[in-house]
Amino acid sequence: MPADHSGLSSPSLPHRAAVALGAAALALGLAAPPALAQGKPIRIGVPTAMQLQVGRDTQDAIKLAIDDINAKGGVLGRKLEMVVADETENPETGISAIKKLTADEKVDVLVGGYTSGVTLAQLPHISAAKTIYLGVGAASPAITQKVKQDYDNYKYIFRVGPINAANQARELTGFIANFVKGELGISKIAIVGENAKWVQDLVPVLKKGATDAGADIRVTEFFDTQTADFSPLFSKVKDSGAQYLVVILSHASSDTFAKQWYDSRFPMPYGGIDVKSMDGDFCDRIGAKSVGQMAANFAVRAPLTPRTIPFFDEFKKATRRSPVYTAFGANDAVYIYADAVKRAGSTDTAKVIKELEKTNYMGIPGVIQFDEMHDVKPGNASYKGPSFLLAQWRDGCKREVVYPKTQRTADFKYPSWIKQ
Amino acid sequence: MLEILIVGAVSSAIYAMLAVGFTLIFGVARVLNLAHGSFYALGAYGAYWLTSSLKWPLLPAALASIGAVALFGVAVERVFVRPMRSSQLAVLMITLAVALVVEQALFLTFGSEYRNVPGFVDAKVTIGGVDVAGSRLLALAVSVVVIAALWLFIQHTRLGSAILAISQDAQAAQYVGIPSDRIFSVVMGISAGLAAAAGILAGPFLSVQPTMWLLPIVKAFAIVVVGGLGSIPGSIVAALMLGYAETIVAYAASTSWTEIVSVLATLLMLVVRPAGIFGRRAAF
């Protein structure tokens, strides 16, 4: 478990914006004419890590979608309402959250998730409760493989986002081959990742793919998520003769990593999967020291689909924050579920699942369709599904999409201290 | 090689600042203060809050933060520790409680995200071909100066002599008229201030978040066990040993192995020489 979320910690204060939204929603609900509130409301259960930005954004994004749908009369004349349970990053708590939402709160659908380990532990309980689950945070391919292995028991599970870790690995390999090697002309590469199961699974795939593409992987190094001093690691990477540093970080202290990279004016650019660097405020909160770094993302404020920019602006207006990736999935998931219920003509689980499988929805990061494992289909050259974008932090802590070329909003820029 | 020398020196300096305060309050008041890491965290958060929310310049913010944490340390000693000092176990429990309360308070006030303490220097310095962040060299320099000043203070002032006297024999010191309670307060303040300074100096290049108190207390504990509880020279020597041992392990093997060094050192020392290198007697 990462150091910043010990089991001893209590939920953080509800965000002021969330409270305001909640109050507004409550007022709206009280003021709603009875004609609109026919039938009991459709309850959306939200199991998420409430202390983290991924969790807060999940809730806020769902709230935005619910308010919008309710303002337009709800679904089949029924209002939507949200019930939240804190799943933290601990599987035990995650299971309790699912039990609370399904057994006590009797929700119609679950939208949430963040840590793959927690989601995997929750799956049997979701299946036992026969409740539809739209995942918006966890990336392990094992989650949706369950649907393929045992459809009857796990047909309730869908992943709206993010694209799964296996696809992310493939895309990251593509980034090394097409961008680092192809465009920057750098073939000497170092790979550094945190010591976690998913990284250890991912690195060999990445290494092989990159080597096949002609890259020379000079060093591969894992470090503990508690590591606070990266000087020895940087030194090893530098001594290896590498000229580009690929990182795979999720729970580690990306903030410290970026600060030390900048403070020592480390003589090579870096980029890769860096979950904390997906946060809208990452660059600001480390005093702009990440300028030049590239981090994978699933959406940034760019015209990816007609919904992308409006959502970013709406979210920012409501919360005064930039949304992280769980927000895209969570917001889309509510609309996708509402559409499926409309088409099914009821909230009957079996009927709604059949309709969900036919989903073709213009979402925030791209068009959302599900494959036979109920996993979101990633985009490619011919299909505008959610893509794996590499966005670079630029002066003023703005972000520009640099890779893939089809989505590029600006050309790559070297950090100021590195001569090309 | 030179790089190990420099990086190890910086780690050692921060460790020494943490451990000296921790060992000082133990040596003088026989208080094993588990809230010591909280002083480190509060120092960093104080500087963060004053610079980011109140827009203070860094130097006054840092000094104010150190001062406030020192006062907080005095308050902790006066309110929580003093009434229970007869029982070491009670002191352990109450200081652990203080540490947890501080952690939760930081969670509630600042959230779980990492925060940034600005550095006094932004420049990079190249020494013999090794690039070192200016903020690290500053941390090293300030630690050396502060610890030297503390040494002079203890050896050459009246108050310092009183501190020494109490650490040697609290009862005898009281018989000759040294007000031990007041001395304990002063020492707790110094100890808290040192930890806060370490937090502010390390903040720019390490992480600032609510659970940041835990690792320093583990390191400080390891250092004083190895160096001998209550011995300032012992802490300095042990801080150097641990700082360099970790750095060498990180360079020679892997950074994933560094954290085990301090724990192993503690275990080994407790088995082989429970009094530590410079300790006069076993603390437990």
Query: Could you spell the SSE succession of chain A in H and E letters?
Result: HEHEHEHEHHEHEHEHEHEHEHHHEEEE
What is the CATH architecture annotation of the largest domain in chain A?
Answer: 3-Layer(aba) Sandwich
**Average pLDDT figure of chain A:** 88
CATH fold title of the largest domain in chain A: Rossmann fold
How many discrete structural domains of chain A? 2
| CATH class assignment of the largest domain in chain A | Alpha Beta
Order of helices and strands of chain B: HHHHEEHHHHHHH
- Beta-strand percentage range of chain A: 15-25%
As residue ranges, the low-confidence spans of chain A are 1-15, 21-37
Which parts of chain B are unreliable, with pLDDT below 50 for 5 consecutive residues or more? Answer: none
Helix-residue proportion of chain A:
40-55%
Topology, number of strands of chain B: 2
How are the strands of the largest sheet of chain A arranged? 7-6-8-9-10-13-14
Q: What characterizes the major β-sheet of chain A? A: 7 strands, mixed
How big is the Rg of chain A? 21 Å
Query: In DSSP terms, counting alpha (H) and pi (I) runs of 4 or more, how many helices of chain B?
Result: 11
Provide the gyration radius of chain B in Å. 18 Å
| Side-by-side strand order of the widest sheet of chain B | 1-2
Distance between the termini of chain A: 39 Å
Number of helices of chain A: 14
Task: Describe the protein.
- The complex is a heterodimer of chains A (420) and B (284).
- With 420 residues, chain A is an alpha/beta fold.
- Helices cover 41% and strands 17% of the residues of chain A.
- Chain A has helices spanning 16-31, 53-71, 91-104, 116-129, 141-149, 151-154, 165-181, 197-212, 231-239, 254-263, 282-285, 308-319, 325-344, 349-357, and strands spanning 42-48, 80-86, 109-112, 132-135, 157-159, 188-194, 216-223, 244-249, 270-274, 294-297, 361-362, 367-368, 389-394, 398-403.
- In chain A, strands 7-6-8-9-10-13-14 form a 7-stranded mixed sheet, with helices on both faces. In chain A, strands 2-1-3-4-5 form a 5-stranded parallel sheet, sandwiched between helices.
- The radius of gyration of chain A is 21 Å and the shape is globular.
- The two termini of chain A are 39 Å apart.
- Mean pLDDT of chain A is 88; it is low at 1-15 and 21-37.
- With 284 residues, chain B is mainly α.
- Chain B has one domain (2-212).
- Helix content of chain B is 72%, strand content 3%.
- Chain B has 11 helices and 2 strands; from the N terminus they run ααααββααααααα.
- Chain B has helices at 2-29, 36-52, 58-81, 88-110, 134-156, 158-168, 170-175, 180-202, 214-227, 232-252, 258-272, and strands at 124-127, 130-133.
- In chain B, helix 1 runs parallel beside helix 5, helix 1 packs across helix 9 and helix 2 runs antiparallel to helix 3.
- Chain B starts with a helix and ends in a 12-residue tail after the last helix.
- The model of chain B has no long low-confidence stretch (mean pLDDT 90).
- The chains are: A alpha/beta (420), B mainly alpha (284).
- Chain A binds chain B through residues 3-6, 8-10, 12-13, 51-53, 195, 221-224, 226-233, 235-236, 253, 255-256, 259-260, 263-267, 276, 279, 285-287, 417, and chain B through 3, 7, 11, 100, 103-104, 107-108, 111-116, 118-119, 122, 124, 131-136, 204-207, 209-211, 214-215, 247, 250-251, 254-256, 258-259.
